[in-house]
Amino acid sequence: MTVLFGQLFTGISIGAVLLLIALGLALTFGQMNVINMAHGEFIMAGAYTTYVLQQSITGAGWSLVVALPVAFVVAGTMGVLLEILLIRRLYARPLDTLLVTWGVSLMLQQLARDVFGSPNVQTRAPELLTGNVALPGGLTIANNRLFILALALAAVAALTLALRLTPLGRRIRAVVQNRDLAAVSGVPTARVDRTTFFLGSGLAGLAGVALTLLGPIGPTMGTNLIIDAFLVVVVGGIGQLKGSVIVAFALGVLQATGEYLTTLSVAKVIVFVAIVAFLQWRPQGLFTLRTRSLA
Amino acid sequence: MTAVTPAPPSIADDPAPTGVVPPARPGGRFRLRTAAGFAFGAALLFAVAPLVLSDFRLSLLAKYLCVAMVAVGIGIAWGRGGMLTLGQGVFFGLGGYAMAMHLKLADAGPGGMPDFMLLYGQLDELPLWWRPFASPWFALPATVLLPMVVAFGLGSLVFRRRVRGAYFAILSQALAAAMVILLIGQQGTTGGTNGLTDIKGFFGYDLDDPVNQRMVYFIIAGTLLALLALTRQLIHSRYGELLVAVRDGEERVRFLGYDPASVKLVAYVVAAGMAGLAGALFVPAVGIISPALIGIVPSIEFVIGVAVGGRATLLGPVLGAVAVAWARTTLSERFPGTWTYLQGLLFVVVVAFLPGGLASLWALARRRAGDAESRRRGWLPLGRRRVERTEVPAA
């Protein structure tokens, strides 16, 4: 039983990391139908922001608190720049966007290598997050994992509320459901796209801050994570968030269970096969946005 | 609704021009100019290159030509079929590993085990799935058929359910990721991160001998030319036209009574077979196959050469792949950091601003001339060919 819960929580914490990364992608992919391969490098930007802040703010706890909003803004700004300079011109060619943003991600990785050096760097975790929480039954849960889970859930909650309640959220939903109709109703779709890109990329920055708690920071840290996160969005279905939330945790648990029963490498293959099988059943993803548009 | 399986490519399939609209490309027959072009290419590869280049440069060229074979396949699947496959490394790797396994077993002699298995010492005897590769009659066909079977399996599942566009690209990339992790994880039987290295012989010939290296180069050059001839017939056949039609308007083709899934499947499987063949020939040319050569990054790098040369053309992918591979070797030796920036810039500039690749500059000049010709003959001028279908968001 303890083992089962332990695996379940490992899976959930893998899922929380996936979710943090996938949320931003779900926003941008869902609204603009473009694949942003540089999303992984926005994660990296968030992580390096934490590292840089820790050079000046010595208290590990405070630097983390400051890093969250700063990383959000840094990564978000990078996202907006990318949207204005490149992606905006390519909305009609989603596959080309994928390749172009891959090129951008290569350049950003090399930039990180030139600025911070090729070897990985490490941040200090605040003391509060280094310990474990002991649960009855001999089960322990690492504090940093718990923090990431809380951060992911907070991000989901904030995003959901923002999409439901704010005027901006209403405009985003309108553009996602029917871009042309939104445009003729007076929604400034280009500006909404840019804002969505800011939010989505900013969330990648938050994910970067969270990842500094789990391991070292390196120029290629984003590449390895981004594919799993894309799979989450593809399987979850685009145009809404709840699919991504469910699938992120489901894939995390599947990965952890597979890893426990077999090995890490076999678990990856199991996850891939499961995804292909799932898409046989629901090729559009878990939830699809139903609209009356004919497009 | 009748699902029409695509006709096999044949010379007789060339559609006759009807009405005032000319066929999309004149000439499905192996015309004189094409024959001259192939003769020129053959002379370049078989006579000029071996005479001009040193042994070292020639072996590098052999490596580039293997990359070019993968590029030809990507040109069919992506340029002609609109399927951006970011996992060609998987098929390249399947072909490469199948060949390398055979060569390792041949090196070890009958009943022997590859050196790395003895080194890791986890195994007492050869694993069951290695055994068939001892026979060249199994291993050689497997280098092509194994990738084709995998592509057929994935493709038939995915295309039939109309998973396409970016979804397909992500899935193909995830396949590459899974394959590499699997190879690294099973170190005892696959060689892990090191891959299969130190291959000495190639069907009884010593690979360290420069003469035999030349022989390998000639085999590779000949194979590439053969693949190009095959591709030329394929894209000028009726099937080739259908493939472009599926790329530009899948729903319309479906309404016409064809089955787009099988049209795409054929292109994907052919591309996989070419990548497998390329991987198999890469092994004797370079002497190694490893996860680092087939993962996510190399898989997407196969694509950039195709984009640079011109994705929808016959020669564009080959020339682009060779040019990019050559630039990588030359520049990354001298300025490793700069090359990464340059490669990134290449992706951005070519794909965003010159989606037809360098070939589109050539085509632009040709079209100017062609439009004048059409007007003279009273044909409708050819429309601007779109490089890629505008993706309509799913309702």
Short recap of the structure:
By secondary structure, chain A is mostly helical. Chain A contains eleven helices and two strands; from the N terminus they run ααααββααααααα. Chain A is 73% helix and 3% strand.
- The overall pLDDT average of chain A reads 88
SSE order of chain A, as H and E? HHHHEEHHHHHHH
Give the strand line-up of the largest sheet of chain A.
1-2
User: What is the total tally of β strands of chain B?
Assistant: 2
Biggest sheet statistics of chain B: 2 strands, antiparallel
Could you say which overall geometry of chain B the principal axes of the C-alpha atoms support? globular
**How many separate domains make up the residues of chain A?**
1
Mean pLDDT metric of chain B: 85
Q: Strand count, sense and closure of the main sheet of chain A?
A: 2 strands, antiparallel
Helix percent of chain B reads 55-70%
Span of the ends, CA to CA of chain B: 23 Å
Number of helices of chain B: 15
Radius of gyration based on Cα positions of chain B: 22 Å
Task: Report helical residue fraction of chain A.
Answer: over 70%
Low-confidence runs of at least 5 consecutive residues of chain B? 7-24, 385-389
Q: What is the number of strand segments of chain A?
A: 2
